[in-house]
Amino acid sequence: MASTPVLPKLVGTRVKRREDPRLIQGRATYVDDVKIAGMQHIAFKRCDIAHGRIRSVDVTAAAAMEGVEAVFTGAQIATMLEPLPIATPFPSPPHRAVAVDVVRYAGEPVAVVRQLLEPDRSVGAPQLAAVDFPPGRRTSRSRVTAENSWFARSRPSIASLA
Amino acid sequence: MPELALRVNGEQRSLEVEDRTLLVHALRDGLGLTGTHVGCDTSQCGACTVLIDGRSAKSCTILAIQADGSNVTTIEGLAQNGELHPVQQGFWDEHGLQCGYCTPGMILSAVNLLKDTPNPTEQQIRAGIAGNFCRCTGYQHIVNAIQNAATRLDARNSAPDARR
Fold first, then answer.
1. Which of A40, A38, A32 shows the shortest CA–CA distance to A114?
2. Contact in structure between A83 and A95 (CB atoms under 8 Å)
3. What are the tens digits of pLDDT across the range A135-156?
């Protein structure tokens, strides 16, 4: 029995996107565009050394500043948040959202400030969270030993080859 | 706190800003014009691009008070009377955007580029948007969109009742 073929309407045609009108006119809502009355913001205090052990974090001056609702150290965050899941089968140190006792890169967060003002309009509260690092940073030339490397500790066989 | 007075998208606006307030934040937070985006901390990405007295500028690298008394055009001010600007139309026609975050800045850079160079070569287009980063598209369709807009503007300007 012959019947008229059903032709596809869209296949092979040029289809314009439906979301573009608001995107090209600046009328889309991205996360930072959301504004709710009483909304708070967070700002991070980040370390400026590449590697070191945190001796202490003093947040009293930051917490006392106007507009600051709360300041959290890495130790406090650790009571609320597990280490971030790292999807790899290889050994990996615990990755904390906010550093607790060791910093492993320049820029790693060491304290979090919760405040009413937008972070760019903050009164520098993150700068007031004082972080104390003991001297003696490891340089790239130092030998990796079980004493200074998480990785070496996790793989004793490799440490013994060093 | 200083009082900033300027024209934004054809309207006279005034608002209180701090000395250190960036123009992008005055536009986004002070005036609620969130179409202009912040994409970096380093003046590299161009998502904050606006037109100041007709010339493209990165609003993250300008203090709000520096724009006192000037004419600022943001992405929200491009379409006139419900009609898309040819560059906006070009981006829609040529799939020149995916997530859309770079797009307002990209469009305003293109507006300035086409004003200075009405019939740019591909190389001139790529040089003209070198200050605008896009992570989604790979730029090819953005180039196509600007070429599309150049053709539209050319046709519009050579029409008998041409309006610029």
1. A40
2. yes
3. 555 554 555 555 556 655 655 5
Q: What is the dihedral of CA A32, A35, A40, A43, to 10 degrees?
A: 20
Helix axes B86-93, B140-158, angle to 10 degrees: 140
The answer to whether B33 faces chain A, any CB pair under 8 Å, is yes
Residue-wise pLDDT for B39-51, tens only, equals: 998 999 999 999 9
Q: Which residue of A has its CA nearest to B101?
A: A23
Nearest to B107, CA basis, from A78, A156, A116, A20: A20
Q: Chains A and B: how many Cβ contacts under 8 Å?
A: 62
> What is the identity of the amino acid at B113?
L
Q: Which of B73, B103, B146 to mutate to test the interface with A (most CBs of A within 10 A)?
A: B103
- What is each CA distance from A109 to A45, A59, A100, A129, in whole angstroms? 6, 14, 9, 11
C-alpha B48/C-alpha B38 separation (Å) is 6
Q: What is the ipTM of this complex?
A: 0.93
pTM score, whole prediction? 0.78
B50 CB neighbours in chain A (<8 A) are none
Closest residue of A to B100, CA-based? A23
d(CA B74, CA B111): 11
Contact across the interface for B21 and A121, Cβ inside 8 Å: yes
